[in-house]
Amino acid sequence: MVIKRLKPIWAALAVLIALLAVGTKADAAKPNYVISTDATYAPFDFQDKNNQYVGIDMDILKEVAKRNNFTYTLKPMSFNAAAQMVANGQADGIIAGMMINDSRKEVYDVSDPYYQSGVAWITKPNSSIKSLNDLKGKKVALKTGTAAAAYGASLKDQYGFDIKYFNDTDTMYNDVVNGNTDATFEDYPVIQYAIKNGVKLQVRNADNLGKAGGVGFFVKKGQNAQLLDQFNKSLEEMKKDGTYNKIIDKYLNSSQKNFVGNASDNKTTLGILKSNSHAFMSGLWQTAELSVAGIVLASLFGLILGVMGIAQSKLIRGISTTIIYIFRGLPLMVLAFFIYIGLPGVLGMKIPAFTAGILTLILNEGAYTGAFVRGGFEAVDAGQMEAARSLGLTHRQATWKVIVPQGLKITVPSFVNQFIITLKDTSILSAIGILELTQTGTLIVARNSQGFRVWAIIAVIYLIVITLLSWFSNWLKKKIA
Length: 481
Hints:
Layout lengths: L1 H20 L10 E6 L8 E2 L5 E2 L1 H13 L2 E6 L2 H9 L5 E7 L2 H4 L2 E3 L4 E9 L15 E5 L3 H8 L1 H4 L2 E5 L2 H9 L5 E5 H9 L5 E2 L6 E11 L4 H17 L1 H10 L4 H4 L2 H4 L2 H7 L1 H32 L5 H16 L2 H16 L5 H27 L2 H9 L4 H31 L11 H12 L2 H30 L1
Helix pairs in contact: 1-14, 2-9, 14-17, 14-19, 14-20, 15-17, 16-17, 17-19, 18-19, 19-21, 20-21
Subcellular location: Cell membrane
InterPro entries: AA_ABC_transptr_permease_3TM (IPR010065), ArtM/GltK/GlnP/TcyL/YhdX-like (IPR043429), MetI-like (IPR000515), MetI-like_sf (IPR035906), SBP_3_CS (IPR018313), Solute-binding_3/MltF_N (IPR001638)
Membrane topology: Multi-pass membrane protein
């Protein structure tokens, strides 16, 4: 009987999820490709002061698309996630300053190299470390998945240093600047750009760079051969007609003011807030959308699990307990990666990032909600059920008319606290490329290298929103009391 009562709710959830998954149709006259990238890897990939994706990779990709009359949908996210999207068929190709090596050729088909890079090793300007021999017993910061990290790791045993891995470039740089690690390895053009934008680091081997190899455009092995061929032919044409050199010069030899804005804007917190106000508001709005959708749907899912948890049937109670145990036990980021990157490879279908994010919140936050909702129902005096049954109500009627209303009243404060937790948990979804508030901050920092000020602004925005929710929680508690 409980299952029948819940069927309309399941149907509503299914319809909403289906609507979330529907994307806009591409222009039928042109093929549309999904291209993943790491948008925090300047000067190859980053956002400019107008929040447009730019960089060596972006300009080359735009030119290739123009010359071959196709369109593309860009999916910016962390490097490892971007690479996995292609390997699992979620994206058609990746362009992200990605180095060509033998291990990657086993998984991907790769273009001709469009840039030859070298690896620099870097310390603070006043560091006592002057040579690689001085790294013995020291800590070195590396960014996961990069050729620079592979090169640095290959020297670990020879020079006797320890390694500390990071997922993003800015955090890695700041770890060295703050003295938590002693050095780092990075692609030379990337660290050049960062130093131009004020990162207080120094390249130690500019005249003798380590070998990194060529940078390429990658597609899944055995697929998108036409796209790869178009890339190679257009790259050759661009090198002959001078377009390629213009792109390289634009990002490596020109002033960075065109991309990061006025230097004065980046020197003060107020200036950063003013020059990036649109980006901050856009990120906050995406966070609000995720939070509201996640809160509503997770609450419904949690209510279903809570009701199932007090059902007469042992099987239904067992299903509720199992679901709560599984999704409350999984880390949110692991669940997000599993839904967005893992499931498509098994199901053979693409899952939009926003849909994957909502599903992640529904399952994880809904499991926590289900646990305290079930606890609220169980906290209702057992005599209430007995009294209702003695008046002739069935177990189902007594549950919905007597137990559920009283139990929900008990759990209202927990619901509001869970809303706050859901809001904060949306920041983790930046890992799968959702452009919410945290990802917005990451992109701004990649552009202007002002990590302290940008993250201070992000922290204050979160604090203001959470404070408002806390006030609402206290007001609601007083009303109910």
